[in-house]
Amino acid sequence: MIWMLTLAMGTVVTVGVYLAFSRDLLRCLIGLALLGNGVNLLLFGSGRFSSTLAPVIEKSRGILPEAAPALPQALVLTAIVIGFALLCFSLVLALAIMARGGSIDVEKLRSAEPESDDPLRPELEDRR
Q: Taking the model in full, what pTM does it have?
């Protein structure tokens, strides 16, 4: 089971990094979402997989050392909700950028920026 989770986590993170370095804005957003899901798998994998007992403890039993830990599950659930909300906001923002800028290509969007007087900002090749 742990090998399957490790392989899935590695695949999700690899695809996420590949898509995050894309020039297409929507692919970048999907890549960042996949990276977040890879981190969720890592957090989920930090718990034990050998236990099938619920983390709920009856009053008379005391401490159960073989119970599944509840903290990684709670962290992953919270991260899923926050990641989904961030993805929805980012997609709406990307659609607004696409409607205003006319493109979702990152290089075209960067060349549409106004000129800057900042000496530390590098010049674009298209403006030279």
A: 0.70
Using CB atoms within 10 Å of the CB of residue 109, give its burial: 0 to 12 exposed, 13 to 18 middle, 19+ buried. middle
* Longest distance between any two alpha carbons in the chain, whole Å: 77
Which position has the higher pLDDT, 4 or 11?
11
Architecture of domain 2-49+70-110: Orthogonal Bundle (1.10)
The amino acid sitting at 97 is I
Delimit the domains of the chain by residue range: 2-49+70-110
